[in-house]
Specification:
The chain has 11 helices and no strands. The protein has 259 residues and is mainly alpha-helical.
Amino acid sequence: MKRITRKSYALPYAVFLALFVVIPLFLILLYALTAPDGHWTLQNFAKFFSQTQAVNTFVYSLGIAMITTMVCILIGYPIAYILSNPRYNRSQTLVMLFILPMWINFLLRTLATVALFDFLRIPLGEFSLVFGMVYNFLPFMILPIYNILQKMDKNLIEAAQDLGANPRQVFLKTTLPLSLPGVASGIMMVFMPTISTFAIAELLTVNNIKLFGTVIQESINNNLWNYGSALSLIMLLLIGATTMLTSREGSSREGGGLW
């Protein structure tokens, strides 16, 4: 009987990655670089850059994603900082309260947000869109920062205090640089989904505001598979560039200290 090696346990994961990651990405690349008749072409990309409305939608989606990410940082970092304070003995309970909404399907959360705006008689538009984005993705910003701050060596803070640093200097010179890898992870977990989402925009703006994900969805629904694949590839390239940038920034800050 042939002995089972450790490498064989990785076979199910390799099959899973091949079926649901590698092959779909290959099909997107294939459709993006071909015409409906099967010939190789770059016409799908030229069509995107020649359509002002599609380019404006792409730029607008980037703006919404940046605004959402910045708001999540401004709200999430202070919350994560407070929860990571060892003197706060109920931090685990509050962390659980932030995680609980993630157990509910995001479509249900978005529909509840729509009902809330209707109850308050607030018109649906850009404000409701950003509000819904922040509400859905804020926990993804809080948790990475909280985990980094929890694991941070508290001796570095004590060393900074022994060297005469005041609380503001301790935060700016020690805590903030050491927590930047968590901020980078939070940016990836918030920025990338907000670019590709379309359901939140459709529900919270009554489909009056289109994001880039909506354009891709409409292309696929209209059987424009080649054009939709080209748009998806553009989005994937942007996500890949963002991932590489944040990964480099995070790795360059891992050894952060007083200076």
